[in-house]
């Protein structure tokens, strides 16, 4: 209870400041001296954040619920033996395991430790950030039913399936870091806080609160990347004249390379990247935006660092280069041959 | 400590979202069509923030300190030292991932900080300077559901007029049609002392996709208007020229200053 009491005054002050706009009285003097450009930057940044926040939160909540309520042992009974079927299933698994690329690495690691075949795990790792209900809904909200939505789902699925099959040829020893190969006695993360001999498992209600807390951690984790991404996007919109981007944005190869590079650097969560991609419509070619939407969720700076935590270096290299080449060739082909 | 800060950050974000709704400033950021998502997010963030209080109290009452935890596991389950270390390592990796530094939390709190410090204002003239401005054709017309029949000429917005221009590219076709539109004043080097642009932003989803549009207005006192001033313009169209483009020019009969409308952006 002491903690609550310490937080309360801060919250009341904050609420007062936010709702009465008290906060603007003093700083407004200072800020009014700032340039209009900064004002524009703030408006665009807050716009992206406010629009994206519900989707980011939905992703975190689902991830928290899975963490606490889904029993992976039960799940493993349904793992197919055929490599092609396994890769297909892996690529589609996101439909029942809706995680974005921030959560998918942890889930994949856990699934591998429980004996999931590599082909299935890799296909899941690459496809799940796109082929899942939350991301499909947010992409639909942004682009509506059309080639962008269908293309994003189909191409992500196919690329993940093919790369999953390729990894079927590899041995786990060559792919995973040594410590990840040990059959794990690990408890689900939410139980690690409890003593192992505790006979009574937490009740349903306690687990629900725990799921919410896990969701909060996930949200805070991912929001950092989202906020950096929206700041870069808002800054670009404020500072770079559209005519400059238009010059890069129309070349069939240059547009693809520019947006794939941007997808890698921005590291936006797949539940929200569609909103950021929207800012590029009318500037970049549609196929390069599709490339952005397919490649970004598979590989970006923050997933790269997480990959390095569980895979061998050489595997990480393949995990970057294979999706990069496939997406690039695909988008280049569409740029040259399809009129939207 | 960190737990408290995390809860505080989440609660603050929830309050921030709710404050945008209750003050109506949400309309400065996103298309009306998506406003219903914001209260859900605010509620969710507040619930998630509150859950930390629950979890902390729960964990305090049930968990022994972590040293005992490892020792206990070591002796009872007979695990090797290496694997106990392994467990500890994974545990600490997890801790690390889920305990963002206060710098990280400050970053997440940036929307609240900027929302407090910077008075909310809709996009205006300064945002137009590095954008392509739609005069006669529309870059936003791609949206599939805007094939509604045009409204009565007296009630047409700037967007409606541009759609009419697009369907009939001959500027002379609109001669003497009456118009009454609301927008903000925009001027740059291409405007003489007797003209300005009455402008709006068209927002499909959020201000990140805002597209600038406007009508060229002929008004003798245009030089006295200041940028970003919201005005209501009454007038009629005549064929004219702007930046070597043939356009229908709105010849103003009255230009009256108005307040910023409740929804400053137009929705396609």
Q: What does the model show?
A:
The complex is a heterodimer of chains A (340) and B (268). Helices cover 75% and strands 0% of the residues of chain A. Chain A has helices at 2-20, 22-32, 36-69, 72-76, 83-92, 101-113, 118-127, 133-143, 147-168, 172-175, 178-181, 204-239, 242-249, 252-266, 273-278, 286-298, 301-310, 313-337. Chain B has helices at residues 2-22, 37-62, 66-77, 81-98, 102-108, 110-117, 125-128, 158-167, and strands at residues 133-134, 178-186, 195-202, 211-218, 230-242, 245-257. The two termini of chain B are 47 Å apart. At the A-B interface, helix 1, helix 2, helix 3, helix 12 and helix 13 of A face helix 1, helix 2, helix 3, helix 4 and helix 5 of B.
Keyphrases for this structure?
heterodimer; A: 340 residues; mainly alpha; 75% helix; B: 268 residues; alpha/beta; five-stranded mixed barrel; 8 helices; 6 strands; 40% helix; elongated
How many strand elements of chain A?
A: 0
**Number of helices, counting only DSSP H or I runs of 4 residues or more of chain B:** 8
Using the alpha-carbon principal axes, give the shape of chain B.
elongated
The average pLDDT of chain A is 79
Span from first to last CA of chain A?
60 Å
Work out the helicity level of chain A.
over 70%
What is the topology, as strand order, of the major beta sheet of chain B?
Answer: 2-3-4-6-5
If you average the pLDDT of chain B, what whole number results? 78
- The sequence of SSEs of chain A as H and E is HHHHHHHHHHHHHHHHHH
Strand content of chain B: 15-25%
Distance between the termini of chain B: 47 Å
- Ranges of chain B where pLDDT stays below 50 over 5 or more residues in a row are 62-98, 137-147
In percent terms, what proportion of residues of chain A is strand? under 5%
The helix-and-strand class of chain B reads: alpha/beta
Task: Show unreliable segments of chain A.
Answer: 183-199
Task: Give me the Rg of chain B, rounded.
Answer: 28 Å
Based on DSSP secondary structure assignment, what is the total number of beta strands of chain B? 6
- Please identify the structural class of chain A as seen in this structure: mainly alpha
Tell me about the largest β-sheet of chain A: none
How many whole angstroms does the radius of gyration of chain A measure? Answer: 22 Å
Order of helices and strands of chain B: HHHHHHHEHEEEEE
